[in-house]
Amino acid sequence: MTIRLCFWSGPRNISTAMMRAWENRADCAVWDEPFYGPYLVETGLDHPGRETIVDAVPTDAGEIAARCAGDAPDGSPLFFQKHMCQHMLPGVPLDWMAECRHAFLIRDPAHVAASFAATAGNATEADLGTARQLELYETARALTGQDWPVVDGHDVLANPEGILRALCAALDVAFDTGMLSWPAGRRESDGVWAPWWYERVEASTGFAPPRDSPHFLPETLEPVVAACRPAYEALKSRALTA
């Protein structure tokens, strides 16, 4: 039996490091942002590497959803799926979520906005996906009849083993110490967008200590952060501790 683990994050969090942690287990296959292709096609956004991405990945949301509800491609017992909440546009199928276990990875929207804008040049409420993340939390709960764990990226960095043990327990999956470190470098499982976004995680070998956002938050982004904060705080109130 395949256990499907959907991790729902916004951008500029530690979602790729979390993917590394799960991929470093011997029993887990991963899928990196499966709905990125349909998101770019539908929105027309000019993200870094857009044409390369659209040409390389599936763009049929229905086909992707069916694969998300299926077995891991290599037959692994665990199938980790790294999902970006902002990619789940209106009309994207969500009923497949009933066949999965879920976790929600959050980060203070001020840090997300500053980091995203430093790479992309700007950030909007839709780019951050915080409100959509709360909607997806409620959807997962409605479809499965269960409350699912929420983890703050800062807490993971401050106490990787403690939070990961708590997370695995909440997902009813055995903890594996292999999740705490991994070899540096790129992975075949990384999305084709890795050259534009994954420089830091490619150099990593584990979870680094937390630090304040290294980017300046322009005043123009303060309304974006304010709009995202209520959803973030609602999810934060449910965050795991260790």
CATH architecture: 3-Layer(aba) Sandwich
Radius of gyration: 17 Å
Tally the helices: what do you get? 12
What is the fold-level CATH name, i.e. the topology? Answer: Rossmann fold
Identify the overall geometry. globular
Main sheet: strands, sense, barrel? 5 strands, parallel
Tell me the fraction of residues in β-strands, as a range.
5-15%
N-to-C CA distance: 29 Å
Q: Helices and strands, in N-to-C order? A: EHEHHHEEHHHEHHHHH
Number of domains: 1
The number of E-state strands comes to: 5
Strand order of the largest sheet: 2-3-1-4-5
Q: Mean pLDDT, nearest integer?
A: 95
Oligomeric category: single chain
Quickly name the level 1 CATH class.
Answer: Alpha Beta
CATH homologous superfamily placement: P-loop containing nucleotide triphosphate hydrolases
Protein name: Sulfotransferase family protein
Keywords: Amino-acid biosynthesis, Branched-chain amino acid biosynthesis
Organism: Hyphobacterium marinum
Family: Belongs to the class-IV pyridoxal-phosphate-dependent aminotransferase family.
Brief summary of the model shown:
With 242 residues, this protein is an alpha/beta fold. It is 43% helix and 12% strand. It comes from Hyphobacterium marinum.
Structural overview:
The protein is α/β, with parallel strands linked by helices and 242 residues long. The protein has a single domain, classed as P-loop containing nucleotide triphosphate hydrolases (Rossmann fold, 3-Layer(aba) Sandwich). Helix content is 43%, strand content 12%. It has twelve helices and five strands. It has helices spanning 15-23, 36-43, 50-56, 61-68, 109-120, 125-128, 130-144, 153-158, 160-170, 194-197, 199-203, 222-236; strands at 3-9, 28-32, 78-84, 101-106, 150-152. A five-stranded parallel sheet has the order 2-3-1-4-5, with helices on both faces. Helix 7 runs parallel beside helix 12 (222-236). The longest helix is centred in the middle third of the chain and has 15 residues, at 130-144. It is globular, with a radius of gyration of 17 Å. It starts with a strand and ends in a 6-residue tail after the last helix. The mean pLDDT is 95.
